[in-house]
Amino acid sequence: MSLRRLAPPEIQPASFAFSAENAEWARATIAKYPPGRQASAVISLLWRGQEQEGWVTHPMVESIAKMLSMPFIRVLEVATFYTMFNLEPVGTYLVQVCTTTPCWLRGSDAVVAACKKHIHPHEKTVSDDGKFSWMEVECLGACVNAPMLQIGSDFYEDIDGPITEQLIANLRDGRPIKPGPQNSRVSSEPEGGALTLTDVALYDGSVIGKYHRQVPEPAVTDAEGKAPTQAASDREAPVQKPPGAAT
Q1: pLDDT tens digits, one per residue of 200-221
Q2: What is the model's pTM?
Q3: Does 98 lie in the same domain as 77?
Q4: What is the rounded distance in angstroms from the CA atom of residue 240 to the CA atom of residue 38?
Q5: Is 87 contained in some domain?
Q6: pLDDT of residue 1
Q7: Residue 116 to residues 121, 123, 165, 226: CA-CA distances in angstroms?
Q8: Domain for residue 198, yes or no?
Q9: Residues 47, 18 share a domain
């Protein structure tokens, strides 16, 4: 894992404060933990702060540390360890492109190329209009619908270069985009619809007993099969010889 640090001081904001709604939420979240265990809320508070600001700032880390009575360095350790926390400014829409093996094999290079063309040549850099930034990420968990990307909290699957370009263009122009597969697929079903178990006879009852009649009757009856037989231990036991018999 590469070294992760907070953004340089020259781009850090002067201060941070939760909005009134988020501050109330934070107090309720901290109250869920018993006395002395408030530090357990650190990830939740950092995540809500990032949702509010777009990224985790130095003043945010300081503020959350005070709220939880934690040393600044302990909160910083959490923020820099988890890659889900953005440590530098991001665009209004953060495009996270999965480039792990399944997506790469299915063409994620073309998705990355579209981001470089329409957002910025370098990842983790905000576009000139401030609306977009993009980054490569590890597996996002939709391998069966590869390649895919995440924007905000939504996933966009079964994409390619042109589809990615259209998604970016729609967002830039304020047009809505629909999460999920971007082709004809429904969820993770096979493309083009079901390919197996399509015979209606499998479900209308017409084949009940059909395959049973094709199986030959066993040579041994059920009663014979259940009759007791000589136990293996008896078969393998040594023969008992009468007393005085020659060995």
Answers
A1: 887 887 776 666 555 566 666 7
A2: 0.71
A3: no
A4: 78
A5: no
A6: 47
A7: 4, 8, 10, 73
A8: no
A9: yes
